[in-house]
Design a protein that fits this description.
Helix content: over 70%
Structural class: mainly alpha
Strand content: under 5%
Protein name: Inner-membrane translocator
Largest sheet: 2 strands, antiparallel
Distance between the termini: 54 Å
Transmembrane segments: 7-28, 60-80, 87-106, 126-150, 181-204, 210-231, 238-261
Membrane topology: Multi-pass membrane protein
InterPro entries: ABC_transp_permease
Keywords: Cell membrane, Membrane, Transmembrane, Transmembrane helix
């Protein structure tokens, strides 16, 4: 029963963090932008939601406001990059650094507990959907809707322009597309998803903490890369699905590592090893294939 509960918890976490991974996928793969704002916009979503909830604001409205403010954070990074001509990597770092102080300012302290507060999840329970699978089903519905919405958007004229901006800025600019606007839009969409994930994680865990965003970009990249290696595909529909699958696989791997005796303090190095293995997998696979061919020919 304990093992089943652990497995269910891992899947739930994989689904809710998968929302953040979808945001990372938009910048990392679609826009080809190394956005480190994620480490700041994730706790931003949690901080805004927690502060509004304890102030008496409806949790659904609180979550939506967090999404909008997350989008603003992404727009600031985009503005620094496109208008002030600051390198993309540094733009994200500057916004992320500023958001640490902003998140503290929003919360008024380093941690806000939500255990006795009404949240989106408690609202679902109040509707009579309480049960072992209720949280997992809710997160599954949310992430599937978001996935389908992203798939649809990326096939619209605006979405195709966004994809083209990531592929070849010079070419798409010559066709009259405002690439600066596309970058700002892409970063806004990405960080709105990241903030949504932070908001839901805070409500799921029962607290918001100023340090909960540390390493989020690595977790997001791990989910994207693991998904690409395990569920190799190029089409948008399957690519976004693989990101969700990669997030679940990542969480299951972390749970397995803990059950094997690794300490929680070891999780960062476990994540690094997982990303290294996922990145090296294609090369190792090709080397193994060449080695086998060489042995066969000889």
């Amino acid at each position: 029963m304990i093992m089943w509960g652990t497995l269910l918890s891992s899947i739930e976490q994989g689904l809710v963090y998968g929302i953040m991974a979808l945001g990372v996928y938009l910048t990392f793969r679609i826009l080809d932008f190394p956005d480190l704002t994620v480490d700041g916009s994730f706790p931003l979503g949690a901080a805004v939601t927690a502060k509004l909830i304890i102030s008496g604001v409806d949790p659904i409205i609180s979550t939506l406001i967090a999404v909008l403010i997350g989008a603003v954070a992404g727009m600031i990074t985009g503005f620094l990059n496109t208008k002030l001509k600051i390198v993309g990597l540094l733009s994200g770092i500057l916004t992320m650094t500023a958001l640490y102080s902003i998140n503290l300012r929003i919360m008024g302290k380093a941690n806000i507990p939500l255990l006795n507060q009404e949240t989106v999840l408690t609202k679902i329970e109040a509707l009579g959907f309480a049960g072992l699978w209720q949280t997992g089903i809710f997160f599954l519905i949310v992430i599937i809707l978001l996935k389908l919405l992203i798939d649809w958007f990326l096939h619209t004229e605006l979405g195709l322009a966004l994809r083209a901006t990531g592929d070849n800025q010079q070419m798409i600019r010559s066709l009259g597309v405002n690439t600066d606007l596309m970058i700002i839009l892409g970063l806004a969409l990405s960080n709105s998803l990241v903030a949504l994930a932070g908001s839901l994680v805070a409500q799921y865990q029962g607290f918001a903490d100023v340090g909960m965003g540390i390493g989020m970009i690595i977790i997001g990249l791990a989910s994207v890369i693991i998904g690409e290696v395990v569920f190799s595909t190029r089409k948008i529909f399957w690519a976004t699905l693989s990101v969700i699958g990669g997030s679940i696989v990542y969480r299951l791997a972390i749970t397995t590592a803990l059950r094997l005796g690794f300490a929680p303090t070891d999780l960062k190095i476990v994540t690094s090893v997982l990303v290294i293995l996922a990145l090296a997998a294609p090369t190792l696979k090709e080397d193994l294939k060449l080695s086998l061919l060489s042995d066969t020919s000889s």
